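Write out this protein's structure.
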Amino acid sequence: MVFLLVFVPIMPNREYRIRGSCIPAVMAAFGALSALVKGMPLEVLLPLYSAAVTAFVFGFLGRGRELRERLARIERGERLEGGLFAVVRMQLMLSVFVLLVAAVWFASAIL
């Protein structure tokens, strides 16, 4: 839910909002299918899934205006140099690392 509260308002148009709102459901489907195939209990999967979704929220927190402007420029067909801008990339990498370490710790504590 927090993912939707952060990402949907950031999106510059309706198409991006629809795509952005589907991300948690798609991640949950892939995670559940992966867990079923590997025989992983849901108690282990839930902290990992929650950390992955929350990491993206923390990774873009406070960067909504920049992301919206960048997506609008892409929508207009402007060619952008490079990928994510350096500050957002570092913030995203740090949040993914911290939250996935926490998720692995919680998942291993369950086992």
